[in-house]
Amino acid sequence: MLERQVEYPTQYCSSKGYRVVDVLSDTVGSLNTTRKGLLKLLDCVVNEQVDVIVATYKDRLMRFGFEYLDLFFRQHDVRVEIVLGEEPKDFYQELVEDSLAIVTTDNFPFRAGRRLVEPSPALNAAF
């Protein structure tokens, strides 16, 4: 299966005239921040070994916080090209995302209101 996942981005790079420097892959989930492939990619970016990063789907690089990773790449003049956009979602993925959005939205007034309470002098050092 991994070979098929690599085939399409490789063809995409050929069609754009890109020279493929390396193909990085991880067998662990994209939530894991200590993935060897991701760490090697960051190292390649810092050492100016790449100009463009090509990924099939955005969440193949990082499931959450992609914007931070993209900012890091842009600060190093590296462009990210996502070949197929977002991965198709099944019913359960959409349900989880909707649930998280509701929890985040409904929780905001609670968190915002909590900040209106003046902290006790004993807690001031922690802020």
Quantity of strands, as a count? 2
Helix content: 40-55%
Please name the fourth-level CATH homologous superfamily of the largest domain.
Resolvase, N-terminal catalytic domain
The overall pLDDT, averaged over residues, is 75
Radius of gyration: 20 Å
CATH topology descriptor of the largest domain: Rossmann fold
Shape: globular
Summed up, the helix count is 5
Number of domains: 2
- Give the SSE order as H and E letters: HHEHHEH
CATH class of the largest domain: Alpha Beta
User: In terms of structural class, how would the helical and strand content be classed?
Assistant: mainly alpha
Distance between the termini: 50 Å
- Main sheet record: 2 strands, parallel
Low-confidence stretches: 123-127
CATH architecture of the largest domain: 3-Layer(aba) Sandwich
Structure description:
- The structure is a single chain.
- With 127 residues, the chain is mainly α.
- The protein has 2 domains: 81 residues, Resolvase, N-terminal catalytic domain (Rossmann fold), CATH 3.40.50.1390; 36 residues.
- It contains 5 helices and 2 strands, in the order ααβααβα.
- The chain has a two-stranded parallel ribbon.
- The radius of gyration is 20 Å and the shape is globular.
- The C terminus is likely disordered.
Descriptors:
127 residues; mainly alpha; Rossmann fold; two-stranded parallel ribbon; disordered C terminus
Please specify the SSE layout and strand pairing.
Blueprint: H1 2-16, H2 36-46, E1 52-55, H3 58-61, H4 66-75, E2 79-82, H5 91-114
Parallel strand pairs: 1-2
Keywords: DNA recombination, DNA-binding
Organism: Thermosphaera chiliense
Domain Resolvase/invertase-type recombinase catalytic: 2-115
